[in-house]
Amino acid sequence: MNKPVPQELVTSGKLTIPSPDVLGFDPTALRRKYDAERDRRLRPEGAAQYQDIDGELHHYNDDPHITERIERAPTTATIEVAILGGGFGGMLMAARLERAGIRDFRIIERAGDFGGTWYWNRYPGAQCDVESYIYLPLLDETGYMPSLKYSFQPEIFAHAQRVGHHFDLYSRSFFETQVRELRWDDLDARWIVTTDRGDVLRARHVVISSGSLNRPKLPGLPGLRNFKGHTFHTSRWDYDYTGGSPAGDLDKLRDKRVAIIGTGATGIQAIPHLGAAAGHLYVFQRTPSSVDERRNRPTDPAWYKSLQPGWQLERNDNFTKLLVGVRVEEDLVNDGWTELFKSLGELQDGTGASNLSDADMKQLGEIVDFRHDNRVRARCDETVNDPKTAEALKHWYRPWCKRPCFNDEYLPTFNRPNVTLVDTGGKGVDRLTEKGVVVDGVEYEIDCLIFATGFEVSRATYTHQAELEIIGRNGVTLGEYWANGMRTYHGLMSHGFPNLHHMGFTQTGYTPNFTYQLDKQAQHLAALFTDTKARGLRVLEPTKQAEEDYLKLVMAPNGMTEYLANCTPGYYNAEGNAKANHEGFLQGHYPEGGLRFYEMLAEWRAKGDYAGLIVR
Ligand code: NDP
After folding, report:
1. For site-directed labelling of 162, which of 99, 207, 400, 416 has its Cα 20 to 30 A away?
2. Is the C-beta atom of 46 inside 6 A of ligand 1?
3. Among the listed residues 608, 422, 438, the one whose alpha carbon sits nearest the alpha carbon of residue 532
4. How many angstroms separate the CA atoms of 100 and 104, rounded?
5. What's the 603 CA to ligand 1 centre distance in angstroms?
6. CB of residue 517 inside a 6 A radius of ligand 1
7. pLDDT at residue 137 above 90?
8. Candidates 40, 148, 213, 515: which one to mutate for ligand 1, based on the most atoms within 8 Å of Cβ?
9. Which residue among 135, 286, 422, 568 has the greatest number of ligand 1 atoms within 8 angstroms of its CB, and so is best to mutate?
């Protein structure tokens, strides 16, 4: 059922879609199936279906990795830059400042160490599905060779610590410390940063890199508080209860009935380890993930040694170019991410399809996606013994509707006699009881319930996610200013909030390699701070007009808007709420893509006129 898309689909710049027999599948029937699967998952309450973990559920957010609380006296200091967040974003910011000669900074981090995502997410099997050679930052500088093409969490966390030592960041960081308030002091042109440890820092600039997937969320299930068994969220894994380590071997689960809710990128990685260890495992599925081959392999030391200085940036640029459709001589990363984009690019370049109308390009893109989806779905039939289970594990949405997954152990887990897939047909779990989970009137009694249900993602609750209050010029809070969505200039700054810089993805240029983006942003900000210091400037703030114009640019509907509007619900598309399209994680991005966005910033800097900013 899955013939390659023939090049002859496009001849002399004209697209002709052959009959389903020739093509090997029926695009119209597939489109109908995708629409029907989406429709039965749409919920009127959208993102409000999720339960916040405040109040009596706050323990889901506690740090299980701190063994002893750090005791220290409060600090009062006047500094150049305060960096909120000690994940790769904050660390890259610090490293780039250090390199630029701005050494007067502090990192403030809620966790007990550096690492961000990789500090918190220590669930068994946690792995980065972007290649380690481009994902792990500062490899050139630290001289570290990742052991595998795709690194697991312990290696990534250790690398964060390595970067911390290499750039002497530990001595300039406060751990187990939460910023409670940022208040702009207009007279002094500084932010007053106060923390839950009584610190008061007066900072010329504040950079927030607090992460976009940091606050666990739970499904708002009836009975959530009634469950009497053991329970935790995957990003706060409880190894005291399960035994084992991120490498697996969860030996304390041998006699336990375990349930996991959620089959996204996290669930896919943890489930094989739970299946291998638990007395019995119930996997509660609402929407299946698309799970392609992992194809991991050890690093070849001779190859790694042969790489010339600057190789990592070159490799990253090569990856990013491919993903935005720029033709490259060689696909250096050559994996599941680049394959998908290459197939569309090859069709365009090899056949004159670049002359196609937008409507034809859309149709061609759909055929390429369907072909890919068919191949991934066929893996379920090839791997899973029980045909009903295999069918239930097939995804029915296009590749960028949800994070594509790559894993070789996930599908075979469902051949284990101790593993049951409870497919909820797109409805989700009905409710919890004292003893377990109810679906379609059947109660599944369990000892332990693990939530692999993702993270709070909503523009309107940005300060809630970052867990702090930000009071700008004229006493307006950022929460108030962004009540109807994020408003920025270049994705980095907002009117009324001078010298406050946000690192992240929204309203910037998207590419799936987050550390690439964070490094580009860190380099941009370090260059900006160096220049303003040299010119004796104290205040940078976008004009209202510049912000308005930029918003129009990033919020204008683009190809991705329509693509996501037709997707199955998820956090990429604000749970399928088309009216709130700008609220989705992948919406509101620089229309020309990740590569052009950072080129645009560099060109903007090179002009040196601070266009769009009020400078004092
Ligand atoms: P997601 O938000 O992607 O997944 C949450 C899961 O919970 C979904 O399967 C969702 O189903 C399910 N769910 C929610 N409510 C219910 C319910 N009531 N009943 C049943 N199921 C429910 O979170 P993840 O933690 O999996 O991933 C978050 C992100 O983290 C990824 O998208 C990725 O960006 C990143 N990540 C990256 C990795 C990497 O390799 N680099 C690895 C892991 C995570 P439904 O789909 O129907 O909403």
Report:
1. 207
2. no
3. 608
4. 11
5. 37
6. no
7. yes
8. 213
9. 286
* Beta strand pairing call for 200-208 and 190-195: antiparallel
Ligand 1 centre to CA of 402 (Å) is 9
336 lines ligand 1 (CB under 6 A): no
pTM of the predicted model, to two decimals?
0.96
Instruction: Output the CA 436–ligand 1 centroid distance in Å.
Output: 21
Residue 579 predicted with pLDDT over 80: no
No. of H helices and E strands in the chain? 21, 24
Examine the pLDDT at 344 and tell me if it is beyond 70: no
Mean pLDDT, residues 287-296 taken together: 97
* Topology of domain 76-215+460-556+591-615, CATH: FAD/NAD(P)-binding domain (3.50.50)
Give the residue among 55, 65, 100 at the shortest CA–CA distance from 175.
Answer: 65
Instruction: Give the tens place of pLDDT for each residue, 224-233.
Output: 999 999 999 9
Instruction: Please report the pLDDT score of residue 2 as a whole number.
Output: 42
Mean pLDDT confidence for 42-51: 91
Distances in Å between the alpha carbon of 553 and those of 31, 102, 326?
A: 30, 33, 22
Amino acid at 387: P
Question: In terms of Cα–Cα distance, which of 338, 316, 321 is closest to 139?
Answer: 316
What is the location of CATH 3.50.50.60 in the chain? 46-55+218-294+372-451, 76-215+460-556+591-615
User: Is residue 262 predicted with pLDDT exceeding 80?
Assistant: yes
- Tell me, using a 6 A CB cutoff, whether residue 572 lines ligand 1: no
Centroid of ligand 1 to alpha carbon of 266 (angstroms): 6
- Nearest atom of ligand 1 to the alpha carbon of 221: 18
| Ligand 1: centre distance to CA 261 (Å) | 9
The model's pLDDT over 375-388, given as tens digits with 9 standing for 90+, comes to 999 999 999 999 99
